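Lecture notes, unit on protein representations.

Consider one protein chain, 128 amino acids long.
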Amino acid sequence: MAPLPQISEAEYEVMKIVWKHSPISTNEITERLTADTDWSPKTVQTLIKRLVNKGALTYEKQSRVFVYTPLVKEQEYVNEESSSFLKRFYNGDITAMLSAYIEDDRLSESDIDSLRSLLSSRSRKGGR
C-alpha cells in the first residue's frame, strides 16, 4: 500500500469538506470554507491545488466547473494520523496517553463513562 500523503492542518479542513460532500465543485468548497474561516478564495484554491498535487484529491472538469473527489479514504487517513500521534508522543502506548489525559483532568466524567462502555462492550466481543 502506498503511503498516505502528508496533509497540513489547513489542507485537512479542505479534505473534511470534500469527504463530507463529494463530489464537490471548487466554488462549493470555497463557499463552505470562506463562511467558516477568514481564508480568501485564493487561499482555498491554493490548498485544493496542493491536495491534487499530493495525490489526496482528484478532479473532473464538468463543462466549466472542476469537481473534486478524494483519493484518500477519511477513516484510513484518521487511523494513520492517530497511530502516528500515539507513536510520536506516547511511544505507541495508549494507556500512557489516556493516563496523561485523566491526570490533567482533560476527560470529563461523561468521556470516562463512554470509555468504560466502549471497553466493556469490546471485552464482551472478545477484543484483542
